[in-house]
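The following record pairs a protein chain with its ligand, glycinamide ribonucleotide.
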Amino acid sequence: MLTIVVLISGTGSNLRALLEAVSEPDFPARVIAVGGDREAEGFLHAEAFGIPTFMVPWEQFPSREDWAQELATQLEVWRPDLVVLSGLMRVLPAGLVDVWSPRMINTHPAYLPEFPGAHGVRDALAAGAAQTGATVHIVDAGVDTGPVLAQERVPIETDDTERTLHERIKPVERRLLIDVVRRIADGDLDLAAAASVP
Ligand code: GAR
């Protein structure tokens, strides 16, 4: 059984979908804890499923490195097989990524390498693109630069706002994430091999 810790910053709607998927008796993975960098709404989903939570409050640490040190300590408590960044809006320092990659994956609301960063949906709209997408990738030391595990296109409608477009991207992200997690758990997706592809 693949064990997972999910890290969030926001509403956690993708987390919720993952929790629903892994609660199916035949799903080969379990979420063992949910962590975050703030009092995120998404913690309510973890609590609803009886999953332990932990918070490493960003504001209470003098630097990114100090914050990440505490996050690393928390991850060591749980020692999951996989860490899923599901809307964690923090760039992790290379030292932490080195410890967990390639067993750390991220969802991103764009078709990487297009529109990386914190505003992937907004940036696609601002660029006047006809389509964007959703991506699940291995986290590396860059910002949304790690090896892609799954991605899919999402068309942009002429009357889309950031909210409407993001709401159409998220179900695609959820489907890709759940499929990637299932393939990792089943042994059909080898993260070390995926990470070594140039
Ligand atoms: C998701 O679209 C996720 O890909 C994105 O935040 C959203 C979280 O939604 N992450 C990033 O943009 C990271 N750069 P949720 O909290 O409703 O699951």
